[in-house]
């Protein structure tokens, strides 16, 4: 069964500092994708970054990077130079590329990030 | 290109009524999936549609149903509403069924349903 674990219910970071949000996953599938989404209080789920299981390099998107350690089944999100607008809930999610769970994203419980000035 | 569009954004219903939510995926995307988000249960998978066929279904009662049209737009319906159905309903669209390889799996802004 697929499972995503985010162990940090809340994180605090000062503006302009870097922060790492943890995510571990459990799957027996070989081909899968890992996603990070940001959800502000308005509710929309904003795509941040994607990492495929066969991608050899860690994904980067502007200030976001994904620290992918396949053997440890970990996909941590690193936000560099935090901004006040980064305050939101962050979700890690996984989807498999085949099998009975095809088409379904599995989400962690989320990490509430607060950026203070 | 336009993103995923969900309508209505907010709605209030009373117990026993029914509701229909709509999701228009990104142009060219053929897969639409639906999720329910509540404070207690988090994000839960409802169902996934691809090429007008329901391909996968989560563990929800039969009151929750959906469909997908030939233009890939999708609707979900909840009948005989209960207080516990109050939630944010999110729809996601992707090019293929998984988004693996492309990373293209995007969400709409959600429809926030309140049942009184």
Summarize the structure.
By secondary structure, chain A is an all-beta fold. Helix content of chain A is 0%, strand content 51%.
Q: Can you describe this structure?
A:
The complex is a heterodimer of chains A (117) and B (116). Chain A has strands at 3-5, 10-14, 19-21, 24-26, 32-39, 46-52, 60-61, 64-69, 74-79, 88-96, 106-107, 111-116. Chain A is mainly beta. Chain A is globular, with a radius of gyration of 14 Å. The mean pLDDT of chain A is 94. By secondary structure, chain B is mainly β. Chain B has strands at 5-7, 10-13, 19-24, 31-38, 42-50, 53-57, 64-68, 74-78, 87-94, 105-107, 111-115. In chain B, the strands form two sheets. In chain B, strands 2, 4, 5, 6, 9, 10 and 11 form a seven-stranded mixed β-sheet that branches. In chain B, strands 1-3-8-7 form a four-stranded antiparallel β-sheet, with no helix packed on it. Classes of the chains: A mainly beta (117), B mainly beta (116).
The dominant shape of chain A is globular
Mean pLDDT of chain B: 94
Which band does the percent of strand residues of chain B land in?
Answer: over 45%
Order of helices and strands of chain B: EEEEEEEEEEE
Largest sheet of chain A: 6 strands, mixed
Please, how many helices of chain B?
Answer: 0
How many alpha or pi helices of chain A?
0
Show unreliable segments of chain A: none
Multimer state = heterodimer
Spans where pLDDT lies below 50 across 5 or more residues of chain B: none
Strand content of chain A: over 45%
Mean pLDDT of chain A comes to: 94
Number of strands of chain B: 11
Structural category of chain B is mainly beta
What Rg of chain A, in angstroms, do the CA atoms define? Answer: 14 Å
Radius of gyration over C-alpha positions of chain B, nearest whole angstrom: 13 Å
Structural class label of chain A: mainly beta
């Amino acid at each position: 069964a697929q499972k995503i674990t985010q162990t940090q219910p809340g994180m605090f970071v000062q503006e302009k500092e870097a922060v790492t949000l943890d995510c571990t996953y459990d799957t027996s599938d070989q081909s899968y994708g890992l996603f990070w989404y940001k959800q502000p209080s308005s509710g929309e789920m904003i795509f941040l970054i994607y990492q495929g299981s066969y991608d050899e390099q860690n994904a980067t998107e502007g200030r976001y990077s994904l620290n992918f350690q396949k053997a440890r089944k970990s996909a941590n999100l690193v936000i560099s130079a935090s901004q006040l607008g980064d305050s939101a809930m962050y979700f890690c999610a996984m989807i498999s590329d085949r099998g009975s769970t095809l088409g379904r994203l599995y989400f962690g419980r989320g990490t509430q990030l607060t950026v203070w000035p | 290109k336009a993103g995923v569009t969900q309508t209505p954004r907010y709605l209030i219903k009373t117990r026993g009524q029914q509701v229909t939510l709509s999701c228009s995926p990104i142009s060219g995307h053929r897969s639409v999936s639906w999720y329910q988000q509540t404070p207690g249960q988090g994000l839960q998978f409802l169902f996934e549609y691809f090429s007008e066929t329901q391909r996968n279904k989560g563990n929800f009662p039969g009151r929750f149903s959906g469909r997908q049209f030939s233009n890939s737009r999708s609707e979900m319906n909840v009948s005989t509403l209960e207080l516990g159905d109050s939630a944010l309903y999110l729809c996601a669209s992707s090019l293929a069924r998984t988004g693996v390889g492309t990373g293209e799996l995007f969400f709409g802004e959600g429809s926030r349903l309140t049942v009184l």
